[in-house]
Design a protein that fits this description.
Keywords: Signal. The structure is a single chain. By secondary structure, this protein is α+β, with helices and mostly antiparallel strands. The protein has one domain: outer membrane lipoprotein receptor (LolB), chain A (Clam), CATH 2.50.20. The protein contains six helices and twelve strands.
Length: 283
């Protein structure tokens, strides 16, 4: 009986440790370099299991759910509530996945029709301070790093059994509770956490292209100057609906003049580019 009890306890511990934990962060951003009063704020999820973690927008998973229900109902895009989708716009169009086994970080973002994926090739080098404080219920310790053109200050806790953080932040001996750059343009604040049954399935439209980070940056710049070269690639031309910037439709639909569609798409991309002149990564 004693052996059975030990086995049962071991199985219980194994089951608990294998669960996925969701950490909800409030992400605050100032994406427009010319208008720092334009502050965007939304929630993002950091889902952690023993094998991996995934960081992505809360609004994205809500939009995916709406689209999935619409297509399952047989109505396609015509069945989607546009006002509801508009209210769920996100400035966090990317996902960041960390492979715990191989200690690698993968970044994914949409450019035109396709999803681009690259392995982060710049290690985070932290300078850990002896300074401590308390944020909410957690005792936290200060750490600083220079990454992608910004100087970041992070506060991590060892009160929780995780060595991870939002976005690409990781490599600290604890979980990042708060991270902010020295200009106050971007911040990540842990709000709450709870257990979930499993990782949600994120819709992956188009092809997934694995590239080097430098190639991804080049493609991003090309998209801003010549978006239609990305819209017309592959089969279907521009008559097929597509999302720009991870979930933002080009607008319209149905039988539209291709020239008009092209003009609207170009105008929209350029307008969005003007409002996103202060990206989280400057280098």
């Amino acid at each position: 009986m004693k052996k059975l009890g030990i086995i049962a306890l071991a199985l219980f511990i194994q089951q608990v440790s294998a669960q996925t934990n969701r950490f909800v962060y409030q992400v605050t951003m100032k994406p427009d370099a010319e208008n720092k009063t334009d502050i965007k704020s939304e929630n993002a999820y950091l889902d952690i299991s023993p094998e991996k973690s995934v960081f992505y927008s809360e609004n994205r998973i809500k939009r995916d759910s709406i689209m999935q229900k619409a297509f399952q109902g047989g109505g396609g895009r015509g069945n989607i509530n546009r006002d509801q989708m508009e209210s769920l716009r996100t400035n966090i169009n990317y996902t960041v996945e960390k492979d715990k086994t191989n200690q690698k970080t993968y970044f994914k973002d949409r450019i035109g029709r396709d999803l681009y994926s690259y392995e982060e090739d710049r290690p985070l080098v932290w300078k850990i301070s002896s300074e401590t404080t308390k944020i909410g219920e957690y005792k936290v310790q200060k750490a600083e790093t220079d990454f992608a053109g910004r100087k970041w200050t992070a506060w991590f806790t060892t009160d929780l059994p995780y060595q991870d953080g939002p976005y690409k932040f990781g490599g600290l001996p604890g979980l990042v509770v708060k991270a902010e750059d020295d200009k106050g343009d971007y911040s990540f604040d842990l709000m709450k956490n709870y257990k979930i049954a499993e990782f949600p399935t994120l819709n992956q439209f188009g092809n997934t292209l694995k590239v080097k980070r430098t190639d991804f940056v080049k493609q991003q710049q090309k998209f801003k100057t010549d978006p239609m070269s990305f819209m017309t690639q592959g089969t279907g031309g521009i008559s097929a609906p597509m999302r720009m910037g991870g979930g933002r439709g080009p607008g319209g639909g149905g039988n539209q003049n291709p020239a008009d569609m092209r003009k609207r798409m170009e105008e929209r991309v350029k307008e969005e580019a003007k409002k996103n002149t202060n990206p989280i990564e400057l280098q």
